[in-house]
Amino acid sequence: MTLDLFIILGASFIALIVGGLTGIFGIGGGFLTTPALMIFLDIPGPIAVGTGIAMMCFTSSFAIYKRRGSDTINFKLAFILAIASSIGVIVGMYFLEKLKHVQPLVIMGKEHIAVQYILLLVFVFLLLGIAIIMMIDFLAGKDKTNPHIGWFSKIPFPPYIQLKFLHVPTLPLIPVLLLGTIIGILTGFLGIGGGVILLPALIYMIGQQVPKAAGTSLMIVWFSTLVGVTGHLRSGNVSIFLLIAMLAGGLIGTHYGTVIGLKMHDHKLRFYFSFVVAATVLIVLFKIINITFYN
User: pTM of the entire structure?
Assistant: First the structure.
């Protein structure tokens, strides 16, 4: 893949924005990185996935360092979810490799590269659901004065784990492991760090407050992207020069994003996050409509 000045500058700018989101919300930013590389810079899907994961591995490492001493990372929960997520990453990468060899899709009389089209469709449905859930939560008027009680705490399914930082500290282990596995599959398949799913999952399913969910999410993202980048390097899905261009902007964005994120109110974080996800849905949906009906 040839890199010109437009791609280098464009990749750096995308990484700057994504790095900011990584610092603010504790997400890897892959839900934005992968489709942005595909849509705006015409980067092939597998390369966008692999290079995006590599970039997230660096930016999440930096964001964790910036959060040191903030008491926003629960290492016990992060470790449990990361183990399950690592297994899921391997499964997700397997599906992506299979999809690379699928015959072109014929839609509206035109051929489309299967891996590109399917990745974009999955992004739309996944992110739309997350945006709707978080917007409904915001409109319901919940704030930090009301304790978060996770959905999992209502499931009577042993064995259990104890997480003392939660309002209801007893959680069933199996649903937690399944959550981690699903997040890992999406990381390997879509090139997302999992944070875009982890943040709402830690808030609504586990019951964490948003600042702590953001920090814990970052640690899990780091684990899953570390596994993912190793596999994608072996598969040839990482462009080193593209990665270098992205790191130039990504680390700067992560620095300032973390400063902002540690100062923001719990309720506002959820509100702004829902708009970021919704904006990404619109961008991807526009691309799908454009390639389906006009290109």
Answer: 0.73
